[in-house]
Amino acid sequence: MPVFVYKAADQRGQTIDGVMEAPDARSVVERLQRDAYFPIQVTPQQERSGLAGLRLTGSVRQRVPGRDLVAFTQQLATLIEAGLPLDRALGIQEGLAPNARLRVITGDVLRSVRGGTSLGEALAKHHPRPFSRLYINMVRAGERGGVLEHTLRRLAEFLEEAQEFRDTLVSALIYPTLLATVGGAAVVFLMTFVIPRFADIFRDLGSTIPLPTLILLSVSGWLRSFWWVLAAGGLGGALALRTWLATVAGRLQADQILLRLPVLGPVILQTEVARFARITGTLLKSGVPMLAALGVVKEMMGNQVIANAVESLGDGVRRGAGLSKPMEDLGIFPALATHMVRVGEETGRLEEMLLKVGATFETDTRKNVKRLIALVEPGIILVMGLVVGFIVVAMLMAIVSITDIPI
Q1: Rounded CA gap, 71 and 97, in Å?
Q2: Which pLDDT band, with edges at 50, 70 and 90, does 47 fall under?
């Protein structure tokens, strides 16, 4: 659908700028008039020129950071808890939004709400990308139950905990990634710039070159002459892998392989189980029915094996088998998670127990990631040390051999 950039004035005479998807410019004008705005200018987005148009296009395409979405949800919950009407709360949020795209989205949602659309429908209809299905379904459940402010507060807590969990994992991976990158760059520099200069010296002297040095010089010469083969092979491999992962069967096979890995597999499983339990518990506590909650969770799973398992759980719930029995029958979920869910069903506190399962497995994931990194970091240092050590020894052997040249 075409995107139009508009400028309009409200009843107080203040002008606003925004974007809107509509079949034509007349539809944009009619929607603005329904929302009590007076259209000043409506143009297709691609016709905007100059720096202003570039800035607007860039702001629309800008991604909404997770932290900004958490702050938006927390502030909106606070404003509604304070007794402000939803449209006024959204108006305040439009002015407070730190992200340009979030500001545009909030203004669009505000106009939809003023036009009689519910908040959940406005979020789903106009901007599904920043707001996940989890977000939209929880807002809808809160509106139906008349507890939107409590639902938003619970949603903000969930988003903040999920963001902290992601930040912890990313922070833990920064050092080994940086170590591997710098070490690899140093080896490439030695092999392509330093070693070839020594090769010219050895060739001019005509001395007998030791075998390790010959191997090193051969590898260096091959890298300098056929680096494009490695580049083309890497690019082709990446494209083939991407094409394979784009298929349903390929993605499923890749996820099965990941779960079978000796050290990384259990960490991936714990991460997925933690996400499954926390999202399901949050949705149930917000009033979303079990089957609807499992439908949302299935689409939010990163591993297709676990996603298919969640779909099977939904089939079990439809048959009246509950949640713990299908989890046990599938044999994918850890025994601890299954037992805790069974206890939650028996005590009538399933949503609380699911949240505890999520918290427990997130804690275990953090510990296992630290252990994994504790193994990876020395491994990277050892490999880089062996490679650099081989280079140094090979060069020293060649230098020592120069003394054998007859005078």
Answers
A1: 9
A2: very low
Tokens of residue 263, six digits: 């050290």
Residue 172, both tokens: 């833990």
Cα 261 → chain centroid: 22
At 308, which amino acid appears?
N
C-alpha span between 291 and 289 (Å, rounded): 6
Q: Which long-range contacts (CB under 8 A, 24 or more apart) does 44-48 make?
A: 44/2, 44/3, 44/4, 44/5, 45/2, 45/3, 45/4, 45/5, 45/19, 48/5
Kindly report the pTM of this predicted structure: 0.66
* Distance set, CA 395 to CA 138, 197, 198, 224 (Å): 65, 11, 8, 18
pLDDT digit string (tens) for 286-327? 788 888 888 888 877 888 899 899 989 988 888 888 899 999
pLDDT of residue 340: 92
Domains of the chain from N-terminus onward? 3-61 (no CATH), 66-159 (1.20.81.30), 264-367 (1.20.81.30)
- The total of other beta-carbon atoms located within 10 Å of residue 181's CB is 10
- Measured CA to CA, the distance from residue 305 to residue 147 in angstroms comes to 35
